[in-house]
Amino acid sequence: MVPVSIQPSDALVVVDVQNDFCPPRNGVGGALAIPDGDAVIAPINALAARFTHVILTQDWHPPRHISFSATHPGSDVFDVVRTATGKLQTLWPVHCVQETPGAELHPLLDIPHAELIVKKGKRSWIDSYSAFLENDRITSTGLAEHLQAAGIQRVFVAGLAYDFCVHFSARDARKLGFKTFVIEDACRAVDLNGSVAQTNAHFAAEEITRISSLEIL
Ligand code: VGL
Ligand code: ZN
């Protein structure tokens, strides 16, 4: 265990802690519920209070988004298809539709000082797992520019899902030159076809550090 102390030039990126990725609560959310997804909220709230810079992301899809199996007649949820842009796309249940309760940030998330909310996956023809670059790998969400302007040097990533949006956000942060940490106990995974093992292999190869929130001083 190598403790890391939080600096003013660190940023916490809280990925997609939204109703649809958590078990339903009072009949709201759960469209793409990640097992135990709401268990990330308590550690994230506790950590966020100690960071000067906190950014939230929000999956924010139009109604007939390319990532929904309902948009592809004859397909099933979790099928992988090749889209018109040549990218492989995993198909999901309809989730996080713009302006619906399922797309709202989870009501127990308590980060009043969050400085930016990055909405991603907004365009019907392209998905965006990463908080930085959409899946065309060209279109910027603006987060990199925001962090660079704020003088951020290290990025800490937490949230949902470990093996999709946390995975791609952390790798892009690292590629952009930030020292990057993923706070494992503040994440939960979908775990689809070995996706957690693949995520861990990429993190190891790309010098992305997996830590526990207990190691953050
Ligand atoms: C996510 C699948 C589809 C995520 C978003 O936040 O990890 N996963 N859309
Ligand atoms: Zn999505």
Give every kind of bound small molecule, once each: pyrazine-2-carboxylic acid, zinc ion
Could you describe the largest sheet, including whether it forms a barrel?
6 strands, parallel
Fraction of residues in helices? 10-25%
How much is the radius of gyration in Å? Answer: 16 Å
Taken as a percent bin, the fraction of beta residues is: 15-25%
Question: Please, what is the CATH homologous superfamily?
Answer: Isochorismatase-like
What structural class do you assign from the helix and strand content? alpha/beta
Question: Poorly predicted ranges (pLDDT <50, ≥5 residues)?
Answer: none
How many structural domains can be distinguished in the coordinates? 1
Name the average pLDDT.
97
CATH topology: Rossmann fold
Q: Give the strand order, joined by hyphens, for the main sheet.
A: 5-2-1-6-7-8
How many H/I helical runs?
Answer: 4
CATH architectural arrangement: 3-Layer(aba) Sandwich
Level-1 CATH class name: Alpha Beta
